[in-house]
Amino acid sequence: MRTSRNGRPYAHRAFRHIGYDNPRHVLPPLRAQGVPSARRGGSRSLPVLTRLDSLPYGVCGARQHSATCVPGILARVPNSAVLAAQHNDDTFEDIWEELNWRGCVQVSTDPAELKKLLAGDPITFYCGFDPTAPSLHLGNLVQLIVMRRLQLAGHHPLGLVGGSTGLIGDPRPAAERALNTHETVAEWTGHLEQQMSRFLTKGGGNSLRLVNNLVWTVGLSAIDFLREIGKHYRVGTMLKKDAIATRLASDAGISYTEFSYQILQGFDFLELYRSFGCVLQTGGSDQWGNLTSGTDLIHRVEGATVHAFGTPLITNSDGTKFGKSEGNAIWLDASLCSPYRMYQFWLNTDDRDVIERLKVFTFLGRSRIEELAIAVVTEPFKREAQRVLAAEVTKLVHGPDVTAAVIAASRALFGNGDPTKLEPAAFEAALRELPHITATRDVSVAQILVDVSLATSLSDARRAIGQGGVFLNNVRVVGQLASLAEAGIEPGMVVVRRGKKTLAGLFVV
């Protein structure tokens, strides 16, 4: 078995890509100006495990993935035009006031101190994302946008990907997570790094820096973990955390593995505080117990005060779960959720929710959002706010060119334009979001209507054709017995429409 320089075997071959043999560096931690050291009064403190900015392969310490090795994910060069157009609203006194107006703060450490901190000199903050899936989703997008707002205010973002915590997963309310393989977590870590890089700027004085907590945990032995980290935690306090209490009250209970998750997340904050002078962590309010795990640990070990705030969990007014479309998550990866589907998801936002969504998910200013709020009340049938929301978020995630193609496809599918003139990829993606089939040109149009469930029977289909209510690529079908060939359809893609809004997709071979 291959061993590292200190004689210990590597934990797992999937981790060899980290790029150095001994993760337990003896270099002193970096300290930002104004961040006090806790090494005072002769007290013993935790061992320094890493000096993160000294690692090869960039600050994250993980293999860099190229766009070509991760097909489908948002791994292209960051959309500089979209990022350049973003700005905070200068009608607010400071970023803390704007975050509260936008509904991005539900719980926090001392609000007055946070307001003062964020209005002062630039600070370093972080938010973490575990690779428990191959892509980020809309819930994660909330955090990315909060990070971007703080970056626009001049603060320094650290994007943490949980190469180690992703091997465990934070406790879910109902049951234990299925553990993914080391290779899978390593691959997904690269995916998430690429996605984060698309939403925050790299370069300049407050560039996004990516970090991976596998760097400072992979070489930490169980004995060291228990002695140097675990001793600062009290089981009684850990049991009171909402996520833990919920699981203990459930039939499934909780394993020691997931019970320990909060300690690992607290350790992350401590390491980033030491290496970067990081003094703020953001996350979802459902993670509040894990966020305060870090603030408490730093206070005990370093004698310092750091901060955290949690964004509210977004819920729909009708009681359905936000971020789901027909039971499927809205992923940021175009191969898992097409841009067309994402656009339609936002376009279908309830009038009761659309203004709050505009505040959280777009960089539109207060005055523009207030104008759209009036339009929702006075002219709801125009759905202007929903159209703006859908366009803004799709542009943020997939870029302006893709968004323009998706909007054109959306209009064409409902009769406003020629579908055959659409960008082929956008047209195909739109059709595949509809009920769709493949057929040859000799099949009758009536049979197609039955097969795609736009008619209950052949007689129902022929009646609809006779009434002039059936369209192929927005051309009315004439002839109740016509085949696709007789209707002028060539091999390719076809949108089948009955009436104004009932659609299906057809791929003709």
Could you characterize what this model shows?
The chain is of the alpha/beta class and 509 residues long. The protein has three domains: 13-76 and 100-311, HUPs (Rossmann fold, 3-Layer(aba) Sandwich); 338-423, Tyrosyl-Transfer RNA Synthetase (Orthogonal Bundle), CATH 1.10.240.10; 436-508, RNA-binding S4 domain (Structural Genomics Hypothetical 15.5 Kd Protein In mrcA-pckA Intergenic Region, Chain A), CATH 3.10.290. It contains 20 helices and 13 strands. The strands form three sheets. The chain has a six-stranded mixed sheet with strand order 1-6-5-2-3-4, with helices on both faces. The chain has a five-stranded mixed sheet with strand order 9-13-12-10-11, with helices on both faces. A hairpin with a 2-residue loop joins strand 7 (324-325) and strand 8 (328-329). Helix 13 (339-347) packs antiparallel against helix 16 (384-398) and helix 14 (354-361) packs parallel to helix 16 (384-398). The termini are far apart.
